[in-house]
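Is it possible to get an amino acid sequence alongside its tokenized fold?
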Amino acid sequence: MSRKITKNPFSFILLIALIGFIQVAEAQERGAYDYSREYIWGISKNTNSGLIAGIAGKFSRVINDNQFQSFGLEIVNVKHPKELRRVSRVSGNTFLLGKTNYLFSIRPQYGREWVVFKKAPQQGVQVNAILAGGPTFGVLMPYYIQYAENSNRVITVAYDPEQYPETSRIVGSGPFLRGIGESQIKVGANIKASLAFEFGTFKNDVTGFEAGFQLEAFTERIELVPLANNRQIFPSAFIMLFYGGRK
């Protein structure tokens, strides 16, 4: 992805939506639904994440010809924009400068979907407008590093930039799940608004992407990088690629 797109994710989301609408305009026919349930899963990317933010699953039921209700679950890794990946001078391994905690958001969601354009009988496009939200359970897990106390001893410790200020002694990141037993649960809530563009040869296929905006808020500030401005509200733009089926 180019640097320009990375720095302006909202333009990227709008561009994708525009492409979807152009393809919708080409779908001439509309038809009635021959299913009552829909199951999808997907992988997502957002402006508070790395290459892949997390995974999601959703079950939807038809309310009427133009409306669904949905029950979903998302699990995503939330990153601080000030996280900096550095290469260790000691080993050549990478580590995250200044980071003290991982944040994994578990988001059960209830939502409603409205059909904007119905899928044509074959090779059509369906566009749904989605509004969903629910509680957030944030898992705050300590980030561990390997630190050279001296030339003969390397220790694995929870990273504290004040206690271990000499970055030249950091060997690399510690084991990913080392701090799972020390995790804390942070409670919050989330809401999202998006458009889903569904493609497929047959009406019972579900393949496409969802793009939109999400707002997540916790009851307290979440410390990810203590020397930076830590927040309790996390807005983001996101895109999710999904696949599933209907019955």
The domain at 3-81+102-136+176-246 is CATH 2.40.160.20 (Porin).
